[in-house]
């Protein structure tokens, strides 16, 4: 990646409710990272499986718990749930194992385990056992139970409109400026570069970003690709399918919508000024819809046009690239499968994959590309298509007056601008 260029991004859509979010210290405080007391990924004793987190799923019944895990598909065995009820162990109850249908051939797959809390148990924690004998629970790792009724009441009056789930941050990913959304963001972090680390530390202390440690590489050999037959490894794309599902449950009681897009993608409204008015319109037109599919469009790395917005001199040395120069859109080939990204109401989703929802309780709607589409500016593109096969799209430039000052602010926040170049 060229270290002398800059990536500019986001913050586009939500300036108004962002302000109200910022002015409400109440909101900001509750967003402070509650670092998991346990690790985010814990091996399940006597098995090859990993457990991630446990949520009350009140859509089923208030006594139902959904444990999200990463299970070895060829080693599924019966499991038993045991709860910590205040200070005593419950009796064990049988677990129902629901493996997600999407795994792209990898040996490990996202798996939900449903458990029922026994009567008269004020459950605080849960774990799974391979035998119905609860004595074997003594040295188990316990998962705290999230989204309990008391949490739900607390969250009632502090809803977000949007949560962006950045499913995986790994390697030397270091596109500093891409991180300025000002929406609630949940980021699953395996590793990142030093400048981005500094910025995210600052954001998470201020409460805009919730960092979830995601040390998947300590437990499995995660694949950097999406297809096992091609890319090998234990699990699809650093465990992305699991983090997306985890993020939906994490957001269920506090966010109206969840955006499941990658860091190099912008969900861009073409007929509305911001995402909120877009969603209000779409929701009015489609009251029963809970899943909105947004078409992916690629803006290749080359050619680009920096006649108007070349990188500013003070951005020299900032890692990343400038998305404002990527104004040439590839026309998708609609004869082959054309992927979407998702905006969902978290309460409408039981299980999700990357480009589609697997189990849901609402209808789906394909948003027309002239209303909203994904602007996808990959770091690399395999080919540089000729100009005459591309469409000019300068929609991003409509946001430059909001974008550029914010980019400068983010750079200052990350201490990437020296005082000399700030003037
Ligand atoms: C559960 O908690 C409630 C409220 O904290 C309490 O009134 C009740 O006695 C508890 N039940 C048990 C079985 O511990
Ligand atoms: C991301 O994870 C890496 C590796 O554990 C850690 O060094 C870094 O501080 C984390 N960054 C943030 C912002 O949490
Ligand atoms: C996005 O769409 C483009 C066509 O515009 C296609 O070439 C590309 O593979 C798609 N990428 C993803 C990640 O869906
Ligand atoms: C792209 O750059 C050229 C100058 O190099 C300019 O004439 C042209 O108007 C630009 N295209 C757009 C869409 O702005
Ligand atoms: C984050 O950065 C801003 C701007 O540089 C600074 O004012 C603030 O004190 C920083 N916050 C923390 C918690 O370090």
From TrEMBL:
Keyword Membrane, does the record have it? yes
InterPro entries assigned to the protein according to its UniProt record, in alphabetical order = Glyco_transf_92 (IPR008166)
What is the E.C. number?
2.4.1.-
At the top level, the lineage of the source is Eukaryota
Annotated GO CC locations? cytoplasm; membrane
The answer, when asked if Amino-acid biosynthesis is one of the entry's keywords, is: no
What GO terms are given for molecular function? glycosyltransferase activity
Q: Output the Pfam families linked to this UniProt entry.
A: Glyco_transf_92
As for subcellular location, the record says: Membrane
Family, per entry: Belongs to the glycosyltransferase 92 family.
The protein here is known as Glycosyltransferase family 92 protein
Q: Can you name the source organism? A: Haplochromis burtoni
């Amino acid at each position: 990646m060229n270290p002398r260029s800059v990536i500019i991004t986001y913050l586009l859509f939500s300036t108004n409710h962002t302000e109200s979010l910022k002015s409400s210290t109440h909101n900001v405080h509750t967003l402070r990272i509650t670092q998991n007391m346990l690790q985010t990924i814990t091996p399940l004793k006597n098995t090859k499986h990993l457990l991630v987190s446990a949520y009350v799923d009140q859509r089923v019944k208030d006594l139902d718990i959904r444990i999200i895990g990463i299970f070895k598909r060829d080693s599924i065995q019966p499991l038993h749930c045991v709860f910590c009820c205040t200070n005593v162990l419950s009796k064990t109850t049988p677990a129902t194992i629901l493996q997600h249908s999407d795994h792209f051939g990898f040996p490990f797959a996202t798996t939900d385990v449903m458990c029922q809390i026994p009567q008269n148990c004020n459950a605080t924690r849960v774990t799974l056992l391979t035998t119905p004998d609860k004595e074997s629970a003594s040295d188990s790792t316990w998962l705290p139970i999230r989204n309990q009724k008391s949490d739900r009441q607390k969250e009632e009056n502090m809803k977000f409109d949007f949560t962006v789930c950045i499913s995986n941050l790994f390697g030397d990913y270091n596109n500093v400026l891409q991180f300025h959304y000002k929406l609630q963001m949940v980021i699953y972090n395996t590793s990142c570069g030093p400048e981005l680390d500094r910025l995210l530390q600052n954001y998470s202390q201020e409460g805009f970003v919730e960092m979830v440690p995601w040390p998947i590489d300590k437990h499995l050999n995660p694949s950097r690709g999406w297809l096992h037959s091609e890319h090998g490894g234990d699990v699809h794309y650093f465990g992305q399918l699991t983090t997306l599902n985890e993020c939906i449950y994490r957001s269920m009681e506090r966010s109206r919508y969840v955006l499941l897009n990658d860091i190099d993608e912008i969900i861009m409204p073409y007929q509305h000024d911001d995402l909120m008015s877009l969603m209000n319109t779409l929701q009015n037109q489609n009251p029963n819809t809970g899943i909105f599919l947004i078409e992916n469009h690629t803006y290749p790395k080359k050619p680009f046009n920096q006649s108007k917005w070349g990188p500013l001199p003070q951005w020299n040395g900032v890692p990343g690239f400038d998305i404002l120069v990527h104004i040439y859109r590839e026309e998708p080939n609609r004869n082959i499968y054309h992927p979407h990204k998702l905006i969902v109401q978290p309460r409408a989703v039981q299980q999700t994959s990357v480009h589609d929802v697997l189990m849901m309780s609402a209808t789906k709607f394909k948003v027309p590309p002239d209303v909203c589409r994904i602007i996808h500016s990959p770091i690399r593109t395999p080919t540089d298509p000729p100009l005459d096969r591309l469409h000019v799209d300068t929609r991003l430039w409509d946001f430059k007056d909001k974008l550029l000052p914010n980019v400068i602010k983010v750079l200052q926040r990350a201490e990437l601008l020296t005082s000399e170049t700030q003037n």
